[in-house]
Design a protein that fits this description.
- The complex is a heterodimer of chains A (323) and B (705).
- By secondary structure, chain A is mainly α.
- Chain A is 71% helix and 3% strand.
- Chain A contains twelve helices and four strands; from the N terminus they run H-H-H-H-H-E-E-E-H-H-H-H-E-H-H-H.
- In chain A, a hairpin with a 2-residue loop joins strand 2 and strand 3.
- Chain A starts with a helix and ends in a 13-residue tail after the last helix.
- In chain B, a hairpin with a 5-residue loop joins strand 20 and strand 21.
- The chains are: A mainly alpha (323), B alpha+beta (705).
- The interface between A and B is large, with 49 and 51 residues.
């Protein structure tokens, strides 16, 4: 099995390299340093979201509500500062909201045993609806003077590297540490590999699953803050976009099987690079938004088909109703 | 006085119905229906004109369109998948219809056919991916949702102006969208027709059963030879097809290709499906549930729109309902059996007078003795659970066993034991007919016939369903004992219609008349229920007059007589009541009297508990099963009684070691053979003054032995 996994990573990396090479040769302006930085900056938010999704997918779940966590709590920060609250208080509120949201997700999935796809589909709608109905006055929450200084989270450079990329790197290190160096991380792999066995062994699977969704929501919120800082506003309509499919694309293409228990941060980095290159190339080629979506969809479909061949579902532990 | 009140309350208040109703599948539909009524009532009070014909017709049009999509999704969910791409398929097929009609100018029938084909093809893509390539349904349809949606976006960029500028004036097309028959919109009418067909398809036709089976357990379905992959694929095709039907009606009603058509539709339909009670993960669901779910969701969203709620509120309401419904559904599916088993047991009032004495020195016909202490044992440790024993004219001994076999012990020494026939269920009462066929009652299976060469044939396993019973009582749950009349009519008892064989003590806890006596005509093959409401009817024996049967009611502690012919035909008379124990099998004795086995003796505690139904209900709920007050069946006796119901003789095993547990006895050539359902042996007791040539069924059929 290990050999196959290694192969998949290699294949994805080779595809990335090939794509990169082709674009460099045939697309004018692709290889310029400006474009490279734009590419990396654009995908860093996607990469951070990919990390959040990775934690959940490794534990044999999925979190469709990540975009809501990305849009609503950071939007709330901007909105509260706009309304005259202080930045720390707003941040604290947003973090509390995110944690509560993660707890709801986790409780629904671990304790109420609602399939994760459904639970997060519905809670995402719920949070987005909440933002739309009660929190925000406009669809795009604008930057206000009270936020000044905070934009450094997404703009500028640190040691010559764009900040958003640094943020992605920091997130990678944190998640890698959580997954590989802590007991909690090991438990996630165990649960993803075989939930029943994990439970029988005495792993407190339910609290661990709840924690997965809380951490995922927090990372999602962090990605939202980085995004808001880099564009100086929070377009909350992003919830209606297809961003979540890009995230799944990153995870699946990077080689983290949807059946759980496998993969790591490296897979996310590779997946992010590939998707970033693809999106950037398509933008340079001036393909329409719908056309880009079409291509992304087809690529994602191919990726999922390949994934189902390389990481076949374990029929022994696949749950009835695990759709 | 208090006893009378209790007795009346338990006689006329049907406690047992609650559990039986809850264990019906349709109660799961009843809950959403009640919710629908409540919501409908609330909205009609708070919104004016909510129930006006125009408003209703409008609701019906929307409900019909969403209803088609929900039907398709119901199929997919029942087969164990999900289809999120319906919203995009809806948009694409809507475009397809309008493009063909407005831009290409096709005739309406061709447009309809092409649109349906388009929907089926789009569904087929999902079907192939999920059914044949076995991808995950959720993720796959999520991806096709994006692909179809972006394809739609690309298409309307090019053609929306052409479509928007065309105003086709085709009466048949307008009739599809806005016509009505007898005031019912076309779409609703077509929906009703398809829904009725869908109901028949799911509940009565083979492919529908296949769908439910696959959803229930994919692997089992595969192992039983169902074409799993094809069936799953076809469900997605059906989903696409039904979505395109909805799109056709939508296109003909509005004729637009806006950018947001079908966006979020999948969430609405999914909410409707889950709310209706169709279980996520498959195996359970019905057309009615889907329809009810659609109506509820539609009423709520329309109500919110009428009340001018913001878009976010609408979204939150849908998501909230979806979550709550999914949670309730999942918890209910998980705990259903437990809840039902708590309310299913419904004890009733059952009063018996103090039993006659059995102690030594007290006198009376039941006075204990030690006659059975030294019976011989046959097959000791080799046979398990011989409920009944019977002997043929060659003196071979037959007995049932727990393993589902009829065992035969060969004469004369009964040392050699062989399997005479394998049936599979536990054999209970047995009888020979005129042609030496052995008829056996099999617990959980019914009445079976074994020919002399050992071939097993089913005689009957069902009877007429009684109209007033909630449980389906047409199947035989616990056929117990039988006898055959001269005309070839077999009377057999079914101890209980509410419990399975291994749950017989629970029936004793209820002490309700749950049993019945059924006749099977060997000439015509007709099975009929003769008597109902008996308290665990057990032993049956055709009386010497040939016009009546004697039967034992175990928990009624009585022997009764039922006339099936003659002047008193159809009447029931008590022969003996208030026995000191629980009567079991009855058989003929060589002197024209009857043998009766008392399988266990009554105890004052259970007698008292039988008068206290509330106490027993609490016991059933709070105390683990193995600590309930059970009818004692560890010790019993054999008695002989005559036609008038007088006890002539009794046989006991005081020592309690060799043969205390007796469910049946059979006299044969001067010996009494004893069987017991908890025993590991068959007893053989030498009778004094018995006819040494008596063979029960030879005498019965007038044959010489």
């Amino acid at each position: 099995m290990k050999r196959i996994r290694f192969n998949q990573q290699e294949i994805v990396f080779a595809v990335f390299a090939l794509l990169f090479l082709l674009f460099s040769i045939f697309l004018r302006g692709f290889l310029s340093s400006d474009n490279m930085l734009t590419l990396l900056q654009n995908v860093s938010v996607l990469g951070i979201l990919g990390l959040a999704m990775a934690i959940v997918v490794i534990g044999r779940g999925i979190d469709i509500s990540l975009i809501a966590a990305l849009a609503v709590p950071p939007g709330l920060v901007l909105q509260m500062v706009q309304n005259g609250h202080s930045l720390p208080a707003s941040l604290l509120t947003a973090v509390l909201l995110t944690v509560a949201f993660g707890l709801v997700n986790g409780w629904l999935i671990a304790y109420a045993e609602v399939p994760s796809l459904f639970a997060t589909l519905a809670t995402g709608l719920l949070l987005a609806g909440l933002g739309q109905a009660a929190l925000f006055q406009l669809d795009v929450v604008q930057w206000s003077p009270g936020m000044d200084g905070f934009e450094r989270l997404g703009q500028g450079t640190i040691l010559g590297i764009p900040t958003s990329i640094v943020m992605f790197a920091i997130a990678c290190i944190v998640v890698a540490f959580l997954l590989r160096q802590t007991r909690w991380g090991a438990y996630i792999y165990a649960i993803g590999d075989n939930p029943y066995a994990a439970r029988v062994t005495g792993i407190p699977s339910r609290p661990i699953i709840v924690l997965q969704y809380v951490v995922a929501a927090l990372i999602g919120c962090f990605a939202g803050l980085v995004m808001a800082a880099s564009v100086n506003s929070m377009p909350t309509r992003i919830f209606n976009s297809t961003l979540i499919y890009d995230v799944i694309l990153v995870v699946v293409l990077g080689g983290i099987g949807l059946s759980g228990g496998r993969g790591g941060v490296l897979n996310i980095v590779i997946g992010t690079l590939l998707i970033g290159t693809m999106l950037n190339g398509m933008t340079i080629m001036d393909i329409s938004y719908a056309g880009q979506n079409l291509i992304k969809g087809v690529v994602l479909l191919l990726a999922v088909i390949t994934d189902s061949f390389l990481n076949p579902r374990n029929e022994e532990t696949a749950q009835q109703g695990d759709i | 006085m208090r006893d009378t009140l209790t007795s009346l309350r338990y006689r006329y208040w049907p406690d047992h119905l609650l559990g039986e109703i809850l264990s019906k599948r349709w109660t799961e539909t009843a809950i959403p229906v009640i919710l629908l009524l409540i919501i409908g009532l609330a909205l009609s009070r708070s919104i004016d004109n909510f129930l006006s014909p125009a408003s209703l017709a409008d609701t019906a049009r929307q409900a019909g369109e969403i209803g088609f999509i929900a039907l398709g999704l119901a199929l997919v969910v029942i087969v164990g998948g999900i289809d999120l791409s319906v919203g995009s398929i809806f948009a694409l097929t809507d475009f397809c219809a309008l493009y063909l009609l407005d831009v290409l100018g096709w005739p309406v029938p061709a447009v309809v056919a092409a649109t349906l084909l388009c929907g089926a093809l789009l569904g087929a893509v999902n079907g192939v991916l999920i059914g044949y390539l076995r991808l995950r349904a959720f993720i796959t349809t999520l991806i096709t949702l994006i692909i179809y949606r972006s394809a739609y976006d690309l298409l309307i960029q090019r053609y929306s102006n052409a479509i928007a500028s065309a105003f086709p004036d085709i009466p048949s097309w307008d009739f599809i969208g806005g016509g009505s028959v007898f005031g019912i919109p076309t779409v609703a009418l077509v929906y009703i027709v398809i829904a009725i067909f869908g109901h028949i398809f799911l509940t009565r036709l083979r492919p529908g059963w296949h769908i439910t089976a696959i959803g229930g357990s994919r692997r089992s379905a595969y192992n039983s030879g169902i074409p799993v992959r094809r069936t799953i694929a076809l469900c997605y095709v059906a989903s696409g097809l039904l979505t395109s039907v909805a799109a056709l009606f939508f296109a003909s009603r509005l004729g637009t290709v806006g950018g947001d058509i079908g966006v979020g539709l999948e969430v609405i339909v999914l909410t409707a499906t889950v709310l209706g009670g169709i279980t996520l993960g498959g195996g359970k669901g019905s057309v009615a549930k889907s329809a009810v779910g659609v109506l509820i969701v539609l009423l709520i969203t329309n109500g919110l729109t009428t009340m001018n709620a913001r878009g976010g509120v609408n979204r939150m309401a849908l998501a909230g309902i979806l979550l709550v419904a999914a949670m309730v559904d999942i918890r209910w599916q998980k705990n259903r059996t437990r809840i039902i088993s708590k309310v299913y047991v419904a004890p009733t009032y059952h009063a018996l007078p103090p039993p006659p004495p059995t102690e030594i020195g007290q006198g009376g016909p039941f006075e204990q003795n030690d006659k059975l202490r030294h019976v011989e044992s046959i097959g000791l440790g080799r046979i398990e659970a011989p409920e009944d024993v019977i002997l043929d004219r060659h003196d071979n001994l037959y007995a049932g066993s727990r393993h589902g076999d009829i065992m035969r012990f060969l004469a004369p020494d009964y040392q050699k034991m062989e399997v005479f026939a394998h049936i599979g269920g536990q054999p209970l009462g047995m009888a020979f007919d005129r042609e030496d066929n052995l008829y056996v009652c099999i617990g959980g299976m019914g009445l079976y016939r074994i020919t002399p060469d050992g071939t097993v044939e089913k005689a009957t396993d069902e009877t007429n369903r009684s109209m007033r019973s909630v449980n389906d009582d047409s199947r035989l749950r616990l056929a117990d004992d039988l006898d055959i009349t001269d005309d070839g009519l077999i009377f057999f008892s079914e101890a209980t219609v509410r419990y399975e064989m291994d749950e017989w003590p629970i029936d004793g806890l209820e002490a309700r008349g749950n049993g019945r006596i059924i006749s099977y005509d060997t000439k015509t093959g007709v099975t009929r229920t003769e008597l109902r409401g008996l308290k665990f009817p057990n032993g049956i024996c055709v009386a010497s007059d040939g016009q009546s049967i004697l039967f034992a009611e175990t928990f009624g502690c009585s022997i009764k007589r039922y006339w099936f012919a003659g002047a008193k035909k159809g009447r029931v008379e008590v022969v003996m009541d208030n026995l000191p124990g629980y009567p079991d099998n009855i058989n003929l004795a060589s002197d024209g009297n009857y043998w009766l086995a008392l399988v266990g003796m009554r105890s004052p505690s259970l007698d008292l508990a039988w008068k206290m139904p509330g106490f027993r209900r609490r016991m059933g709920k709070r105390v683990p099963v193995d600590e309930w007050l059970f009818p004692n069946i560890n010790t019993g006796c054999v008695v002989k009684f005559n036609e008038q119901g007088r006890i002539l003789e009794s046989f006991w095993d005081l020592h309690g070691e060799n043969h205390p547990m007796i469910t049946s006895m059979r006299e044969h050539r001067g010996y009494l053979y004893l069987g017991g359902i908890l025993n590991n042996r068959i007893g053989r007791y030498k009778l004094d003054n018995a006819d040494p040539n008596f063979v029960q069924y030879d005498k019965r059929w007038g044959k010489l032995s």
